Amino acid sequence: MNQIWGSIEQYNTVVWHWPIAVYLFLAGLSAGAIISAIVIKWMKGNDVSPSDGIIKAGSILAPVTIGAGLLLLITDLTRPLHFWKLLIHYNFGSVMTLGVLALFAYFPVVILFFMGVFKKELFETGPLQFLAPLANLALAYAKLIESVTLILAVGVGAYTGFLLSAMNSYPLFNTPVLPALFLVSGVSAGISANLVVGLLFFKSSTKDGNVSYLHGLDVKVSFVELFFLFILFVGMFYQGGSAAHVAHAALSTGGLSTLLWLGVIGLGLVLPIGLNFALPHGVKHSHGFVIFNSLIVLIGVMSLRYYILYAGQVFVG
Amino acid sequence: MAKKYGMIHDNNLCIGCQACSIACRSENEIPESVYRLQVWVKEEEYPNGTIGYEYHRQSCVQCENTPCVGVCPTKASHITEEGIVLVDVDLCVGCLYCVAACPYQARYVHPVTKAPDKCTFCHDTRLARGEEPACVTVCPTDALIFGDLNDPKSKINQALSSRVTYREKEKLGTNPKMFIVPNHKGGINS
């Protein structure tokens, strides 16, 4: 099809660019960080745990990453000064509205969680002392807040996938496995980010039970992620028609397929899984390796978001 | 019963003259870099060996089951009682979810308002005055037929009952109200 007159620039198929990919990564990471922090907190018991480095890392990472992500998302709107209209006009049939509502509830509870964890350091003395009652409230209702946070975090992690899968014009987005894939890879990113921040800034040690537990969990989660990626493409091939063509193109064409094979699958999934099988116990539980492993997992998850977002829009059958 | 507006693009009558596109730009004051409507051409070799041209109208197809309206978080994208899909610029935040969700690539970002814009069947101007859309009025070959799908006697219903038509991407279930009469030279006749 050729145009006869006029510019066809507006018909460029890529509508959502890299800021959206980074937002999807940060939202998933935020949800994963708080989910894994709460899991650790529940494992260790609520009284001893707030001093734990991993929990501290999660309590900081969750609000900071979702805040940064939302800021990026707002500045990426074509009418950023109108963003507040999202907060007062709802369409309950739109995944974006459901996401806004989930974030509405999620942001305060992750901040409450943070305040509870850092009560001693930040709110008992000093200029922020006036917030102490809020921090006390967070501690008094810790279990309830954590339960609610966990549910909302799963919602935030999965909604980013539903956001894309709701569009039936893009075969790579329009698959039921995408929300699950995004949730699982978000958990993986959250675990890794908690490990990096916990080990570097909060004197966590790889000798801590929860560090090796999370590190081991990360490998298992990577298996699930790999399997979901497999389901995604096999499902598209089974659909046949344009979905199968899109799957074939997305797996084999250009720089995006290279990003998938090298960045997402190679660096982010197969290398960590392989190293954790091949390396001796002493090495894979060393400070340096856990951080290295976490960083390549994070690069892999970011690559996955970038790949899905662009490949979904570029390969449309 | 409320009116339900639809349009027919007859591929046999269209000659790719671009009058519709120009009329649309003039009527709706479309900025230079963007288009509510374009007509594209595709060369075809017909079974008898001759070469012909297929014309494709690239514009909003006014879906009944609207992906763009469904995803809009603020209801800025909405559909009127008469079945015309519109954008309320005041409510729009510019998330571009509707631009992405449209399977027909009908939407573009208006360079001035920064909100998505698209064909409205000249809803605010010509339709409001009881006239037909600019593209229909100006078409020299009457390749465009516009009217009320709920009125059995309307021009569009008479044409629909006498010509073979199809709609684009019907498998997506969007139910476009833009009907296309395929080229007879391709072997389809009615």
Automatic annotation (TrEMBL), chain A:
GO terms for cellular component: plasma membrane. The gene is nrfD. It is a multi-pass membrane protein. It comes from the Bacteria. This is Polysulfide reductase NrfD. It is found in: Cell membrane. The chain crosses the membrane at residues 20-42, 54-75, 95-118, 130-160, 180-202, 223-239, 259-278, 290-308. It holds the Pfam family NrfD. PANTHER family: PROTEIN NRFD.
TrEMBL record, chain B:
The keyword Cell inner membrane does not apply. Gene3D superfamilies: 3.30.70.20. GO terms for molecular function: 4 iron, 4 sulfur cluster binding; metal ion binding. Keywords: 4Fe-4S, Iron, Iron-sulfur, Metal-binding. Pfam families: Fer4_11 (PF13247). CDD domains: PsrB (cd10551). This is 4Fe-4S dicluster domain-containing protein. It comes from Sulfurospirillum diekertiae. The lineage of its organism: Bacteria, Pseudomonadati, Campylobacterota, Epsilonproteobacteria, Campylobacterales.
